[in-house]
Structures are given as structure tokens and as C-alpha cells.
## 1
Amino acid sequence: GKIIKDVMSRGDLGIVEKGSGKNDLQTEADRSAQRCIIASLTQQYPGITIIGEEGPSTETDEVPSDWLITESDPEVLSKICPPEYITVNPEDIVVWVDPLDGTSEYTQGLLDHVTVLIGIAVKGRAVGGVIHQPYHNYKVVEDPKGRTLWGLVGVGAGGFTPVDPPSDKFIVTTTRSHSDGVVVKALEALQPDEILRVGGAGHKVLMLLEGRAHAYVFASKGCKKWDTCAPEAVLEALGGKLTDIHGNHYSYAKDVQYPDAQGVFGTAKGVNHQSLVDKLPQELRDAFPY
Ligand SMILES: Nc1ncnc2c1ncn2[C@@H]1O[C@H](COP(=O)(O)O)[C@@H](O)[C@H]1OP(=O)(O)O
Ligand SMILES: [Mg+2]
Ligand SMILES: [Mg+2]
Ligand SMILES: [Mg+2]
């Protein structure tokens, strides 16, 4: 988070177009935050698989020593770890890193849409996640400290206070920078009272966790495994659900294809996920085959 803020305050974002479609940018903040996270995790956990959005690191990728994070969150360490995670083999663990989610919005100054996502998959299932929001409350406080949410399926979550969505209306959140005709068709099928178009997969799941929307619906193949692993784990640790638009969980095993090719469908705790999925017309679902 600090690296992301430092790049922004220096003013030269170093934007590169990744060229794989519209609004697919990378900045110096994406590159540096990924080097920090991957170097820190690799040093502490050499036996696991770590996959980052900005590609594999190179041998020349020395990071400054003060970028190597070694401390742990005492709140998390005070919890009792479920036995299935204690005995898990490092080979069965994949960590999916999105060093900066919401890059488009970052370059446009919509800073609270930005999150840092670190998702932990065990045997292909997204079970652990950290969502760091470096600019949380930046419009209200002068020098925002940011906040860090975490969740582990079977343990719970922390770093924030969950809120239930309102019961008198139905609010859906979706993309603001990667929309198209199919994305809109899916929203229309759900007949929401309100649509909140905001950036970032992490940020949209925050909207579900804080009761600002009931569902996150993106009928498009633009998201990738690092966008959804951490958000899925935190959401599900608190009783929500995140799947593809057919209602099936993605695998986050090390050999999967990166795109979330069947879209994203997330719901807050207490929302009937399957009955919302069932509202999508068959012809729309047919556009997202396995
Ligand atoms: N077409 C796309 N090309 C590249 N990235 C995408 C695309 N669609 C979604 N994403 C990624 O998923 C996130 C959520 O999408 P959206 O904000 O449109 O709802 C984006 O911030 C972006 O992650 P990132 O910013 O990490 O590259
Ligand atoms: Mg990106
Ligand atoms: Mg992302
Ligand atoms: Mg990213």
C-alpha cells in the first residue's frame, strides 16, 4: 500500500498498455507492489506456488531490503487454525497475487477503488484472502492509513465490520471500465433497483461485505484468477458466495487457465445465490461455455 501511494505522490505513474484488450494497463505501482509481495512471500514460504498478475519475476529482481515484509498480524495469529490447514502440503497451496486491483481507476484518481489482493488456494479452493485498501477514507481524512481485511474459511474474517445489505431494495454492483452489451444484458435480467458501477474486483466485494450491494455481477471474461481468489475467500469466510455466472466455483489450482472465462457472480451473506443465478437467460449463459 505504501509503495502504491509513493508512486502516486511522485506523480510519474509509468503507464504501460498491456495490449490484451481495452483498459488493460500496468503502472510502476503494479510492478513494484508485486515485487515486494512476491519477494516477501517467496522468502518466507519457499515450497508454495505464487502467481502474480504482472508475470514471473526475473533473476535481476532484487528488491530493497526494507520491502521484505516479515511481521505477522497478531490478531490473525491469535485465532485457532482449523486442523485441515495445519496438515496441508506446501505443494497444495497456491497464492494468487494482484498487486494493484483497479489499475484503470488508479490512473484516473478514483483511489478508493484500488485494492491489493492476496488470495490463498488450498487444493484448488479459494480459502484465505487479504484485501488491503490503501486509500480507504481518503476523501475524509488527510493522510489515509488504509485498512487490511482478511478472511479464512472456517475461521472468519477481520479488519472491518461486516454490514448486511438493505432489505427494502436490491442493489447490484458491476464494472465501470469493462462493460459491453452482454454485461448490460445480465444486469437487466436481474432487474435491480440500483446499479453501482465501480472499479476493481476487490472493491466490489468490499461493497458486498459492507452492505452497499447485494450482488456483484460481471458477465464477461475480463477478470482473472488473481482478481477473484482473495475476494472469494473473504466473502465466503463470512457466509457469502462467489462463483462464475453458472453458479460454479472456479478452481485456483496451479495449472488452471488465468481468465475467469465464465464471468463473475458474487452475493452477500443472506442472499439466495442460486435463485439469482437462475434469473440469467439461457442464451446469455450459452455465451460462456466451459
Ligand atoms: N477486460 C479486462 N482486461 C484486463 N483486466 C480486466 C478486464 N476486466 C476486468 N479486469 C480486471 O478485473 C478488475 C475488475 O474489473 P472491473 O473494474 O472492470 O470490474 C479490474 O480492475 C482488472 O484488474 P486490474 O486492475 O488488477 O488489472
Ligand atoms: Mg491489470
Ligand atoms: Mg485485478
Ligand atoms: Mg492488478
## 2
Amino acid sequence: MNIAKVIVDVPASSINQTFDYLIPEKYADILVPGMRVIVPFGPRKIMGFVVGQTSESSFDSLKEIDEVLDLTPVLTRELLDLGKWLAEETLSLYITAFQVMLPQVLKARYKKELERLTDETLSQDLESLFAGRDFVPYEELEDTNLSYSKVQQAIQDGDVTVNYLVKSRVTKKQVTMIKPNRESHLLEEACQELPGNAKKQQQLLQYFIENPYEVEQNILIKKLKTTRSVIKALLDKQLLIASKKEIYRNPYEDSTFEKTEALELTKEQQQAITPIRNSIRQNQHDVFLIHGVTGSGKTEIYLQAIQDVIKQGKEAIVLVPEISLTPQMVKRFKGRFGSNVAVMHSALSSGEKYDEWRRIHRKEVQVVVGARSAIFAPFENIGIIIIDEEHENSYKQEDNPRYHARDVAIHRGEIHQCPVVLGSATPTLESYARAHKGVYKLATLRKRTNEKDMPDVEIVDMRNELHEGNRSMFSRTLIEKMEHRIAKGEQIVLLLNRRGYSTFVMCRDCGHVKECPHCDIALTYHKNSNRLKCHYCSYEEPMPVFCPSCNSDLIRFFGTGTQRIEESLVQLIPEARVIRMDVDTTRGKGAHEKLLNQFVSKQADILLGTQMIAKGLDFANVTLAGVLTADSMLHLPDFRSSEKTFQLLTQVSGRAGRHDLPGEVIIQTYTPEHYSIQLASHYDFVQFYRIEMNTRKTFQYPPYVFLTLITVSHQNHVTVVQTAQRIAQLLQQQVEDGTVILGPTPSPIARMKDRYRYQCMIKYKSEPNLRRTIKKVIRQFDEDMRKNDLQIHVDMQPYQLM
Ligand SMILES: Nc1ncnc2c1ncn2[C@@H]1O[C@H](COP(=O)(O)OP(=O)(O)OP(=O)(O)O)[C@@H](O)[C@H]1O
Ligand SMILES: [Zn+2]
Ligand SMILES: [Zn+2]
């Protein structure tokens, strides 16, 4: 087995296969599939993944592997297989599928070092390598004759580890630790000698008299509500002593989470969890759909099911949509399982992400809570996979590989023979239909755990407001109710449904709309910088003073952004303190969390925001939720627009009155009679499901058919049209009767980043060979893609039809 099969990092379909390389003697003992290597490829040296080994090759004069990057495989056997499956399922390249499963840090080449983890004596050659140091540059290892297998053994024994030196900014985090500098009785004496007014210092000393241990300065400050200057005073008196300590970049200080215990489950919860527990006990793969109203205790069910899995010595993956991966959510998992939880979140720095991944890889944790890509957590003994808010679009990756985390979850669930649990108050029609047919097992939670009714929903017809002379974005009812709440010291959540709306700039004289010069899309006005920005390619320019088309100075912005709403809100209710949450105010790291904390600590009366405020937030003091424009996305050219509207309205309604105070919801709309608005106001999911399924059946949309979207793009318009037409023709010849090929038509955004875009949609009921057919068709354009920058994207499960 002296030959390695390698998938190389060249993202081209002509290279999408394994290449054979000779394994040099020095790597013979240590190399296993799943490791990354550097190999010569043409004139270059590139990275690749070892996916297999063999002793024979049909090629002669093989080149040698240049370097082995990992001493422990970064991809497990299962993940290697999963990568192959993923590539085939989504028609993407093997290399892209492997890359998506790994943290960013492992996708590039970084300097490495060996770190000694033990004080025990190591083998002699390792001792001479470390030569008294704790850290050794990796190159030194490569320069010695030391056998890699010895180092590998030391890593497996936990004596040594390999670190990646991600840019120094994120490599190591140092924290200040504080501990007492004297024995407790001496501290007590000192405490009595402090002046009587030094209450804060006394409190701090008292703490260390009772807890004579080292503690992180920041935690101390939080716990005792004390300050740096108080600590400094005692440091200066040499009663305490400070030191620096390097820590894992654990972004959530575990010790600050209060421990929670399993709650006694309600009847409904028990009924829902029992079959899940059975599957866990019997190592059986089933898919469960928990349809439970907001506040019905789904999360508690997840927590207790995970508890069972941990007891079995197995692992759990919990997926949460990016925007609901809030500190509140993390707290619930860390509160129950403490440091046994890793969190994977896009707001973490690449170093932090790598640390969390490594905790999983080393099996230091049994639970991971994360956004979409956490589905690839390198666990090897999975006992449950949970997808919360399963209807969320963010589970679909809109980039290659275009996968849906739900499909990956079910595939891994089959491999590990473990249950997969999908939960939502508004499941997708696809999932609910499967539950209806018995493919998934359905559990329904009808009641909130606190037995409180869902809040009353009032629909306000904005057309009437207009007729009666109210031109503002706020109905009189909503204003009245807001004023009432503010007077009582209660809080309000206001949602501006922003999809379909934006602040674009238009000339009132000639109607000219300012568009991005590279994309066929209106530019968005940003007031803070007084600039126009493109949300697709990040092009920007200053707000024009004169219309570029007719030179009129009546060029103004239109539409309704959160910023505009905030301004008019403050005009209407001057005493209102408003926190605005949108892409602009939440950009910085931790900004999201900071705004929420301000709201929780009642520094504001109103939380105004886009979709991001509708999910998962749980505020005790919120008694009114308002939706400003319920119908703004009802008319988008997307067959899921009614479903999305229903989901959003239901989610927002769930924000109010979750605790002791009763809640109320106002939905403002121009189409009050629409079924998704009417049924959302009655929380009638099942009726909505029935009506919407009928519509889907009539117009032949999923779940009655499958869709595949092929998008062609190129700088030259003619090339795009011709290619798209040719693809449609070729497909037409090969698909089954009854399969429909729509298009080619221009994509809804017909040009993006200077590239024209056309699309074909395939609608089918059964096409067992579709993937093969598409591959064959696209292969004909290989050369154009390689040499001529033609792009063809295939999405086997399109969600963004725009
Ligand atoms: N068995 C129980 N007994 C008492 N309280 C419970 C129980 N289960 C859950 N709760 C509490 O009820 C509240 C709502 O529960 P939870 O957040 O789990 O519901 P959910 O269905 O996940 O809500 P959402 O869909 O809005 O996220 C929480 O405060 C939770 O602590
Ligand atoms: Zn643009
Ligand atoms: Zn003009």
C-alpha cells in the first residue's frame, strides 16, 4: 500500500477524480485516509486529501507526496464517504465537498508548532526535539530524523499536540487571572484594617477569604459587580496577585452559566419524547417532526433527549438557524451541559471556530450547537441529530456544494442509526407532508408550557387608514397601544418585513431609478454615510445631488427602511426609546448581543427590526408585537411566498406574552383577506397546510413535484442565451415524459457583478437518472467553463428563486 489516492485542490470538473501518488518511506507508517497532503501537480505544489491507499496504479512514473500536513486525519472515514455522497447528490466537486466540512483554518496553509502537554518524560528523541521548550516550530520536526509515527503516538497519548498558528491576532487569547496573595486569616486581618468606607474592597477580600482560588478577572467583575479599580487597589496593597493566562478562545465563559436541571415534562412533552427515547435506546434511525406552537417546550424536549444520548456515551448535534443562535439559546445548552458543549457560529473568529472544532475532533465535548455547517461535526458516535426551526431557509447553502442540512442530517442519521428530530411551530410543507404520510413520525404540542393562550392577534387594514387620512406607516390602533404599553413600563417588538422592500433612489421628475452599474438591481440608500450601496456586489457611490438622467434636483430615496421607520416613530411618540436592529446596526462583532442586552435590561421600550428579531427571542416584559407590513413579501415571484409569510407572522406572534404578562399582536396589512394572514392570526397551521397544499397541487410545485434550477452566467449576453438554450434542448431529449423544462428565461436578477444570467427550471415527478443526465449535458461545456469563464450552476433543491 505504497500509493495514495488523492483528491487535489483544483476546483475544476475535469480534475474531479483521484490522482495517484507514491508515499515516501518516512510517511509510510503514519499516512491514513482523511489526512491532508501537499503534492506536486503540474508545475505547482497543491493541497489534497488522501481518500484511499493502494499498492497498484494504472499509471507509471508516479510522483511522490511532498509533505503530509496532518498527523491525525482531519476527516474521519465517515466524513470521507459523506463528502463523496454530498458531491454526487449536489453535483459539486469532491474537493468542494471536503472543504465545506472543515473550519476555515484548515483550508489554507498555516505555520504549525508542536506543543508539549505533559510534564512526564517523553521518549528520548522527543525530549531532544523539545529541548526544554514547551513549543517547537513544526519545521524542526521535519528537519530531524525523528519518525513521524513516534510523534503520532505521542499525540494519540495526549502528550503532544499540533497547533495551527492562525494570524497572531486570533491565535491565543490571554486573560488576567486574580488570586489571593496571602492566606485567608491574613486576608481577614487586612480586611479589618481597611477604612470603613472601602466597602467594595472589603467585599472583594471577603470573596477571596471564602473562595481562595484563582479566578478570571472578568468573571470576578461580573460576579461581584465590582470594578477594575477596586481590584487594582488590592493588587497594589499586594493582598491579591494577578497573572496572565493563555486560554482556549472559548467565546462563552462556561463558568458564568447557571446550571439548570431537567424540568418535569408536561403530558404533551412526554408523549412527544417517548418515541424519541425509544429510538435512542434501540439505536434506531427514525425521523421525528415536532410540530409545537411557540413556547410549547420543544427545546426542553431536545435537552432531555440529549441527556439520554450523553448517558449512552454518544454524541449530539443540534442545528439552530444562524440568527437564533443568540446568547439566550447558547445559555440553555451550556446551562444544562456546561463545558460539554461546543458552539459553532459564524460570528466567531476563525481561530475561535477552529478551537471549537478541535474540541469536537478530540472528543472533548459530546454536544455541538451550531448553524448549518455544524452538521459536519467530526463526531464518530452520534446518538441524535436535532434541527430546530426546521423551516428556516438558512439550512440551505446557496453556494457550492448547494446542500440542505436536513438531507445531510438524515443521511448521517441512517449511518449512525440514530434519530433525527425536526422541530418547528411552522414546519415546511415538505416535512409536514412527509409526516402526514407516515414517513416522519409526527408529534404535536398544542399548548404553551405555562398553559397561557397564544396572544390575541388583531389585523389592521391599512387601506382604511389611508382613506381616513393617516399616511404614516403606523395605524392609529398600533400607536395607541404602544403609548399605552410605554406608560405601563412594558415593552414592544416591531417587525419591518424587509424582504421585497428597500430604500431605493428615484427621480421624481423622470422616474429614473439609480441601479448598480454591475448588477441589474436598484442601489440601496444608506443614510449614515449618505451613500448608495449594492447589496449583491458591494459597489458603492455617493448619493447624487442631480438626477444623472434628466439633471433634476428632485432625486430622492423611496421605500421604507428601518432607519426611516425609526425616525417617524420617534416623531409620533417622542418619549419612546427605540433600539433598531438590522444588518447595519448589527455588523460589528457582538453588536447583536449588545443591543439585545440593552433591550432586556429595559434601556429601551421598543425593539424595531427586520426578520432577525422574529426568531427565538424570549423577553419576559414584551406584551405587544407589531408587524408593520405583513404583505410585503406576499407578492414576490416565489411559490413559497405565502408559506414564508405565514411562518414569519407566526414567529413574531410568539414573541409576545410568553411569561406572566398577557400579550397582544397587531398585524398591519393591505391584503387582510389573504389566507396566510387570516390563518396566521388564528394560529391555524393545519388549515394553512391544507389550503397551501391545494395551491401547490394545482400549480404543480413542491412537494408535489421536484425542482432543479440551472443557472448560466457569462459576461457576454449572446453566449449566455445560446448556452442556456442548448442546455434546455439537450435536457429535453433525455428526460422522462411528463418532466417539464421551463425556460431558458433571464434570472430574476438578470445581471450580477457584470455577468448576464439565464436559467432553466426542471420540474419533475420521477427522474432517477437526472443527476447523470445533467452531468453529461454540462460536460459538453467543460472547455468553455475552463477557458472562457462560462459558469453553470446546478441547484438540485432551489430555495432562492430570485
Ligand atoms: N416541562 C416544563 N415545565 C415548566 N416549564 C417548562 C417546561 N418545558 C419548558 N418550559 C419552559 O417554557 C418556556 C418555553 O419553552 P421552550 O423555549 O422550550 O419552547 P419552544 O417550543 O422551544 O419555544 P420556541 O418555539 O418559541 O423557541 C421556557 O421558558 C422553558 O423553560
Ligand atoms: Zn452590484
Ligand atoms: Zn430625472
## 3
Amino acid sequence: MGMKAIHFGGGNIGRGFVAEFLHTAGYEVVFIDVMDNIINELQNTKSYQVTEVSEAGETTKTITNYRAINSKTHEQDVVEEISTADIVTCAVGPNILKFIAPVIAKGIDIRSTPKPLAVIACENAIGATDTLRGHIESHTDSERLETMGERAQYANSAIDRIVPAQAPNSGLNVRIEKFYEWVVEKGPFGNVGHPNIPAIHWVDHLEPYIERKLFTVNTSHATAAYYGRYAGKKTIAEAMHDSYIRGVVRDVLKETASLIIDKHEIEAQEQQEYVETIIARISNPYLEDSVERVGRAPVRKLGRKERFIGPAAQLAERGMKYDSLLGSVEMALRFQNVKDDAESVELATILKENAPADATVQLTGLERTHPLFSAVVKVVDQVQSEAKETGQPRI
Ligand SMILES: NC(=O)c1ccc[n+]([C@@H]2O[C@H](COP(=O)([O-])OP(=O)(O)OC[C@H]3O[C@@H](n4cnc5c(N)ncnc54)[C@H](O)[C@@H]3O)[C@@H](O)[C@H]2O)c1
Ligand SMILES: O=P(O)(O)OC[C@@H](O)[C@@H](O)[C@H](O)[C@H](O)CO
């Protein structure tokens, strides 16, 4: 029998990254989603196209050999597919992991195949597979946990490829950048060996890769998005074309680079080259990536291990400079009441209803005794005061 991958999330990165590389590696991909339109389209087509766009032109690949199941309406089918699959991946967003865990737990529990299932969450978050595993374990009978390792193996990953929101008439087709990086821990697969997926770079220690990615790509991306929206820009490329915003992004990246070089002993020259690649990538005018997509979910992005507070906290602990990152935090706090973004409404409510120190704890999870805490409270206070004066943040 051929190899089978179950992939949760038939969205942009699911179709344009994970499924592409699983397909190339020879897997049949079974997409699981809760959106009727995506499932219907996947069920009613035999192929879709992934087009890489860059100044060098366009290259198109055709993805075939997939099926799709709606987990909202056909949960038992999903459970059975998982029980005979080789790998489960997901790209649903870090806040959705808890919702997909119960069905994965049921599928794992009834497995009787000799090889354990490989589980790899492909989200922009540190330790996303660990988080998913925690939710799966909390939906597994305690007496079955001891033998879980015979049925499933869990590996964290870092994924990098910019996939903007797609044009409304593009159907399943995805336009993406050429660059990609998929790094996964190999240790958890032990003697069984890791899955054979040529696109994956297997490593012993993931932390340097995921922190470098999140604190360079996503920190700069989100900085451009929040400053860009504040300045009335529509896309990230447009924001990066603005010399002031570009300068701010560079300042922020100097701070995160100093952490990455110090903590992970990456050579300064290597990090500088990485930074230049990322600046070129996020400035790519062919991607048309909106500031709203990149700024989406500001409460998640202000979290303790996330792209701003994560590096700023570690810099503060080391007595190193972090004030440009605080500027990004300030702009993120102004991403309030944005259309179709529930967290931007939640952010506005938290800022409205709480004193600065309480709002800081609620949003960032920073400990009140942390060396970064008072600096963030000041920024929160500043944004709250503007809203009190004008009835809204300065947008
Ligand atoms: N787009 C990018 O450039 C990019 C790059 C790297 C990583 N990521 C990460 O990948 C993840 C997905 O991002 P995206 O841009 O593809 O988002 P997206 O919104 O395009 O796709 C998410 C998909 O998950 C589906 N979904 C939601 N709840 C579900 C559930 N309970 N079960 C199954 N499916 C469910 C949605 O219907 C949607 O199709 C995020 O963690 C993001 O940070 C995105
Ligand atoms: O997906 P988010 O919301 O965590 O972040 C938005 C973008 O920065 C992100 O999707 C990037 O495009 C991606 O991480 C590039 O690899």
C-alpha cells in the first residue's frame, strides 16, 4: 500500500507548502478541514496548481493524488483514516490545535499498524507539536498513555514560506514565493527513523532554527504590517518601500540578530546574510501580501514566546537593547477592531477594561517581576491614554 498523509487545514500553507512537499515525497494527502467550500472544491477536483512567483518569472507545479474530508460532518471517517496513516500534519493556526486534538487522539488510540504515526504540527509557534501532543494526551485514557510511543511519535518543526491570502477567484490554486524552509527534529523518531520527505531538513536541535525564523521573518513581517497599517499602506511590499518603515524594520532586526548571535552562537556574518534574504523576501512586490493578513491575531502575536515579547524578554534578561521591539509592540497594540479579525476586537476590549499593568499581564503573560515588564506597561499605558483622549487608538 502507498504512503498516506493526513493533513489538517486546507488553507494557504496547507495547500501551498505542506501538501506540495508531501505529494512530491510520494504521499497520498487526505485534507481535513471544517470549511465546506474548501472541502467541496478538494473533493470535486483532481488537481490544483502551486505557482512560485518571483522577479525571475513564474513556475507552476500540479498537485494530484489527494482526497478531502470534512471533520465537522464526518469525524468517524477522519478517525479511521488516521488509524491507518503514516503521518499527520497540520497548518490550522496555533489556537486551533486544541480543536483538532480529540479526533487525532481517537485515531491514534485505535491504531494497530506496526509503525507509529509521525505527528508534525506546521504552525508559526515554538513547540507547536508539543502543544498538540499535550491536547492529544489529555483526550487519551490515562492507562493508554504509557504505550502511546508505540502508536505515535511527535516532532516539532519550523516552517517558512510566504503564502499570502489568495485572490477570490483562484479556487484551490496558490501563488507563493519560491523560497521555503521546513526544519524538523529527528530525535523523536529514534530507531524507527524519520519519514522520507526530501524537502525536510532534519536536525537534532530545533530551537536555533525556530527562534531564528520566528524572531527574524515573523518579527520583521509583523513590524512592517503594524507600522504599515498605521501609515495607511495596503501591502507589506508597500510598507517596506517606505524608507522610514524599512529603517524601523532594520533597527528591530538588529536587536533580534544580537540575541540570535549571542544565544545560538550563529556567526554575525551568517545572520546578516539571513537578515538581507528576509528583507528581500518580505519586500517581494509579486506577493501582494496584505498588512491585515500579516498582522492578524494580535493577541497571539503579543504572547510571551511570540515574535516581539519572546526576543525582547530574552534581551532584557541579558541586559541588551530592545527598544525598537517595544516600538513594534506599541504598533501591534494599535491593531484594534480590524474587520474580520476577532482578536483585534478582543485586544481593544482588554485595553479598554484593564489597568495598564493588568492588561500587560493578560496580553503578554510577562511576570510582574520580569525586567521587561515596566517598559511594556509604559507602552500599554501610552496606547490606552491615546484612546481615552480621542476615543480610539491613533490610526
Ligand atoms: N501563510 C503563510 O505564509 C504561513 C507560513 C508559515 C506558517 N504559517 C502558519 O500556518 C498556519 C496556517 O496558516 P495559513 O496562512 O495557511 O492560514 P489559512 O487560514 O489559510 O488556513 C487555515 C486552515 O485551517 C482550517 N481550519 C480551521 N479550523 C480547523 C479545524 N478545526 N479542523 C481542520 N481545519 C481547520 C481553516 O478552515 C483554513 O482552511 C498558521 O499557524 C500560520 O502561522 C503560515
Ligand atoms: O501566520 P502568522 O499569523 O503567525 O504570521 C503572519 C506571517 O508573518 C506568516 O504567515 C509568514 O508569512 C510566514 O511565517 C512565512 O514563513
## 4
Amino acid sequence: MSDDEADPELLELLRQSLGLGKKNGPPPAPETKVLQNARFIFDNAIDVALDPRSTKAAARTIWQQMQEKHYSTKSWSAHELHPKSKDEGTVDFILTMDLLNFSFWSDETDESKRFAIEYRGQKWTGYWSLVAALQRALDEDIPITSPDFWLDEDALTEDVLRHVFRSATDEQIPLFEERLECLREAGRVLDEKFDGSFINCIYDANQSAAALVNLLAENFACFRDEALFDGRKVRFYKRAQILVADLWASFEGESFGEFHDIENITMFADYRIPQILNQLGCLLYSPPLESQIRRLQPIEGGSTREIEIRGASIWCVELIRQEINRLHSESQTATNSSRHSLDIDRNGQQISNLEAKTAAMTISDGKTQDENENGNGNSRVNAILIDFFLYDTMKELERDGRETIPHHRTRSIWY
Ligand SMILES: Nc1nc2c(c(CN[C@H]3C=C[C@H](O)[C@@H]3O)cn2[C@@H]2O[C@H](COP(=O)(O)O)[C@@H](O)[C@H]2O)c(=O)[nH]1
């Protein structure tokens, strides 16, 4: 080799160290930044704090009750009003629902006077009033879940939407105009960018939950749930995230609900989960903030206090999720070690430890232990199921008159 030719091996080492000419590796996994923003808010919060001991205790209680109730994705479709079919109609229903899934709380102190939807012989309030109104509209052959309908100002007139949300009381649905605008905007964006169908948004996300959340926030202003905190942009994306979660739960992790990174979805920062986290002793308010909440005084959307409530709640559920998975791993270890003791198989024959371990992993119907645990193919409890469980539990407490603190009052289209 002549003196002026460089040693090829040395060249390659140099290229690698400089990252030159490297084949393009896989693209970085999409992320929403919601969880890291929540951590930032929690670390810098003044009026909201978390109690570690109560959070640990709450995790244990939540996990025990989730197991007792066999809480899983199947719980979603079990709700009386939720759609049961696993088809495009349900995808459209879930999109419509989560475009409008915000701000049902009433200014009425007399419960009997608050906005309510009469459907199937019952009066539905809160979130369920929305689901009932949509089901009732479909029963009346109003195509309320169709983006083409949302676009057509001669078909979806203000009067038609008022008919859809007609109340069983004198109080009307809050933020009616904003809800109409959410539908109009979504109809326009779907028509202009996604060939008129939300299914194309799901395809574009390539089975990534984070990518679908980001696609919704980037393309639809009414999903762009962000704020400024300490001079930094923070993301909550509550309705975009719950839309992905509702798809995942409704389709039980398959078909239009299949996401390989579903664990990237956080708790949904609404007005019910902070309430139950405070009731459980996990989320603590400063005396002035607690007084504002107890006196039902409005907390301005985008204010520092509101952002701290939402961010700290997301972080609190993350800590609960981590503790539940620690408990789960501990219980798995304990179960596995007990398998090294004498094992009798289903036919009462003593079998070797290795066989026992293998046999125990495939339960009678051929599913693995994990699939049997929560019915969606993984043993880990994620923030979605914890969140759904907490919301449903808070609604039971409300029904039984066992709220110990009101939920905070922020009138907002974000939650
Ligand atoms: N974080 C979180 N927020 C949730 C839900 C749900 C309902 N999800 C169903 C689907 C699966 C679950 O099993 C639930 O049955 C509604 N919300 C929010 O609460 C508020 C409505 O409160 P109220 O007016 O009292 O009904 C409003 O901001 C609404 O957006 C949830 O699950 N998580």
C-alpha cells in the first residue's frame, strides 16, 4: 500500500465514530411527550403535591379491586351504552364521542335540574349523556357519526344538533356552539386531508398509539390540548389519548384497536380523576386551592393552578402504575417459586418441576398466563385500565353520595 493511501480499517473506524455514511437506522419511535411534560409540571408545582405513602397504598387497593372485578379491555364494551360491534361504525362512533367528550358538569346545584338525556327509559347525565344522545340520534336515523353530515350545513343545522342534544330538563348541554364547531372542523379536516374517513388516520399511524395521538393534535385544532407552564409548552392531549384508548379497549387490542405502543398512553387529564386521587389521599391541594375547589369557584383554563392539577394527576397515575407493576412482578415471582415445590398436574400425577413450570404457563384454553390475567395479551396493567377503573369508581362514589371533595370547575373543550 503506498504511503498516501489510508488504512481502510482505520477509515471505517473514523467514519463510524463520526456517524458518517451510517445506513439510516430505524426511525425513532413516535412519542407524545405528555408523560415527560407531566413530570416537569409535577416537579415545579406549587399548589399541588403527591403523597407517596397514600399513592403506594392506593396502588395496592386499586390493583386488588381491578383483579377482583377482572378489569380488562372487555369492561369497555360491557357498559350498557357503548357500541358492541367491532366494525367501522364503532370507529366512527368513538371518533364522534371523543370529539365531544368534554365539560358535562352543571352550574345547577339542584341535581334534578341539570342537563340530562332521556334514553331507553333512563335519564343520563355527565359523560353518559353524550353517549346516550349519540345512540338516540342513530336510533332516529340522524347520521350523527358521519363526517359528511358534519360538513353539510344544510343537513347538520344548528336546530338538528339542538334536537340531538335536547335535554330532559331546562338546562341545555354546556358549550353547545363549541361542540358544533368541533364537528364542523373535524369534517373539514377529514375531507381535505384524509379522504373523508378517520379510518385513514388510523392507517397513517401504522399501529402506533403515539403516532395517532400526534396526528390528531397536529391536524385537528380541537384535539390540540396544550398549555404554557413556566414558559414551556406542555401537552395533555386528553381527548386524543382517550380516543386511542377507547379504540384499543373497544376492539380489545385488535383490528382498528391494535397498537404496539399502547403503554405510551397516559391517564386522561379530566375533572374526575384528580377528584378521586384527592379522595384517596394521593393528590394534595394547597389550602387556597382546596378552598377554591370546595367553594365551587371556577378555575380558569390555562391557569397555573389548572395545569398543576392536570399534570400532577397524570404523574400520580404513572406512579400508581409503576407500583402496581412492582406488586404484579412480586406476585409472579412468588407464584413461580411456589411452582418449584411439589406439583400435581390436572390428572393428579406428580410431574417434574420443569414440566410443572411449562404446564402452568399454558392454561386449559391454550392461552398463556398473561392473556388470562387481563384478556388483552399482556400481564402489565397500563395507565388506560387504571384510569378507566378510577373514573368508573369515582362515578360509583358520586352515585352513592360518597364524594368527599367536589371536582374542580374549569369550563373547557379540552376535558
Ligand atoms: N380520565 C377519564 N375521563 C373520562 C372518562 C370517561 C368515560 N370513559 C368510559 C370508557 C371507559 C371507562 O370505563 C368509562 O366508562 C369520561 N371522562 C371525562 O370525565 C368527564 C365527565 O365526567 P362526568 O361529567 O362525571 O361524567 C369529562 O371530562 C370526560 O371527558 C374516563 O374513562 N377517564
